[in-house]
Amino acid sequence: MYTLFELQSRIEKAIAAMEYPNHPKNLYTPIAYIMNLGGKRLRPALVLLAADLFKGDIEEALPAALAIETFHNFTLIHDDIMDNAPLRRGQQTVHEKWGTNNAILSGDVMMVESNKQLTKVKVEVLKDVLDTFNATAQGVCEGQQLDMEFELREDVGIAEYIDMIRLKTAVLVGGAMKIGAIVAGASKEDAQLIYDFGENLGIAFQLQDDILDVYGDPEKFGKQIGGDIIANKKTYLLLKLQELAEQEDRAALASHALNTTTLPDKIDSIKALYDEYQVKELASQQMREYLDKAFAALAMIKVADEQKKELIGLANALMHRES
């Protein structure tokens, strides 16, 4: 059994060794740039952890892990364009450095590169791997579209929000793990169970992110505390507050949303409403429900409990993180 750190290190070496054509330079240099900006490499590591869970060869699963990481970084390039973000991991975003048109094209090629990596898996499992990857990639795009549409709507419900974060964030976690299981030769039942584990863990992770955005330690969170409040971003906390708040408080909430000047006051006022309606506790309860679903799926997988320890440890670490 491998540790998460060992697998992350293996992925980092493989990414450093990846080579792209030299021409056209402005098409391929941005790909190498974003792929080497760092990050925790959790998604590709999940491919390898799942393969290892079913006693597969991690070297055979490595191309699929690289495909998942390439696809993930492709989505980051395009997300940064849509968000007009100037920085990614503390460095200039691709579109800031090379221009929007170049960034779009480089991102498009990264999708091709992902598929080229996937074709390196064993032919016996290639169709199942490609089917899973395509469903995953399509789901991520659907989630991003819904997230953008939600910005223009005032009637978003909690069930819709959960489905959006499932698509935008969680299906990639589940899909990565299912691909690792398929490469390792897991049964269809076990491959689906590891997918269910990953998807529910991904939803719990995003709910935890919503909570940390308001209640996290600013020294550890890595992002501005209250950033979602400032941006009027629809999160589980905001939607739950809108659902529970009395008419007077809903009016106050609408007024705070218009505040673009005294931002610390805006954060404090909305946080006070969250506290009054115990929204943090309700969000934490919802997060634990999805985490319980994840662990229930993992428990049903037909491998020895000893082999599950690394995944259990990772899940617990993610749910008790401060950043």
Order of helices and strands: HHHHEEHHHHHHHHHHH
- Given this structure, which CATH class of the largest domain is correct? Mainly Alpha
Give the mean pLDDT: 95
List the domain count as a whole number.
2
CA(first)-CA(last) distance: 27 Å
> Strand content of the residues, in percent?
under 5%
Q: Helical region count?
A: 15
**CATH topology assignment of the largest domain:** Farnesyl Diphosphate Synthase
List the strand order in the largest sheet. 1-2
Name of the CATH architecture of the largest domain = Orthogonal Bundle
Biggest β-sheet: count, sense, barrel? 2 strands, antiparallel
Low-pLDDT residue intervals, each spanning 5 or more residues: none
Q: Which radius of gyration do the C-alpha atoms yield?
A: 20 Å
- Judging from the principal axes of the Cα atoms, what is the shape? globular
Structural class: mainly alpha
* CATH superfamily annotation of the largest domain: Farnesyl Diphosphate Synthase
Total beta strands? 2
Helix content: over 70%
Notable features of this structure?
single chain; 323 residues; mainly alpha; Farnesyl Diphosphate Synthase; 2 domains; two-stranded antiparallel sheet
